[in-house]
Specification:
Elements: H1 3-6, E1 23-27, H2 31-37, H3 42-63, E2 67-74, H4 82-105, E3 108-113, H5 121-133, E4 140-148, H6 150-166, H7 177-181, E5 194-197, E6 216-219, H8 229-240
Parallel strand pairs: 1-2, 1-5, 2-4, 3-4, 5-6
């Protein structure tokens, strides 16, 4: 954590505590490019990105934001170089093991969403252990999208609904938005109010496609390792300047 970030432990005075997003989602983009710009191997950017994520999670707790969801590894990321994928899997496992005690102390509830069965067995074990151990924590809901794809999630929900109809437990006309949402990986979690994507990229990249129907989108030009509390402050100021009408006048 930088000394500048330390100065922002309390909610900045120009933010309205009653108009904060309840749920922030992020696309943590630019780790590899951040490292390459500094003449470093790409994995150093991923390590730096972990420190950024840890501080953002603490910031959500400090500022009263109840839920943070991060895009850690997409279904498309398997196409990256094998050594980078292997490093990321090892990094996820190491961070989970190393940070679990601190997440308990901070009252962070951890949840992973995505097709977790495709992950290495040792990582799956760490994930299930972390979710079980932190299940009763109440300060921040921290959701990690891993081996996640929005289209994959929607297809998964459609198949589950089709199975219910085929088994005679559900009529097609009984399927509504609420029923559909109960079959998503994120069931029980409110839709994001704000999406933050770093590195200047302006696309959703197959992330929470159903859930972000009315999410406000904020694009930050900085790479993810440089996304500090000051940058988060700017994102929240932008969010609070918007008129969220949800299709109404």
């Amino acid at each position: 954590m930088t000394s500048q970030s330390t100065l922002l432990r309390s909610l900045p005075v120009d933010l309205d505590a009653h108009r904060l997003p309840c749920h922030v989602a992020t696309i943590m983009d630019g780790n590899g490019r951040w490292a390459q710009q500094r003449g470093l191997p790409r994995f150093m950017g991923h390590r730096a990105g972990v420190d950024t994520l840890k501080d953002l999670l603490r910031c959500c707790k400090d500022w009263g934001i109840a839920a943070l969801t991060v895009y850690a590894f997409s279904t498309e990321n398997w196409d990256r170089p094998r050594d980078e994928v292997d490093f990321l899997m090892t990094l996820f496992e190491m961070v989970l093991h190393r940070e679990l005690a601190e997440m308990m102390a901070e009252q962070v509830r951890v949840r992973f969403v995505g097709d977790l069965d495709c992950l290495p067995a040792s990582l799956q074990a760490e994930i299930h252990s972390a979710m079980e151990i932190t299940a009763a924590n109440t300060a921040v809901q921290f959701t990690v999208a891993t081996n996640y794809g929005g289209r994959q999630e929607i297809l998964h929900a459609c198949r589950r609904l089709a199975e219910e109809v085929q088994a005679g437990r559900l009529l097609p006309e009984q399927i509504d938005e609420d029923h559909f949402a109960q079959h998503l990986y994120t069931r029980g979690l409110a839709d994001p109010d704000l999406l933050i994507r770093t590195s200047g990229e302006q696309r959703l990249s197959n992330y929470l496609l159903w859930q972000m129907a009315y999410t406000e989108i904020y694009v930050a030009d900085v790479m993810w390792p440089d996304f500090n509390r000051q940058a988060f402050h700017l994102a929240l100021k932008s969010y609070q300047s918007r008129d969220r009408r949800f299709g109404k006048v």
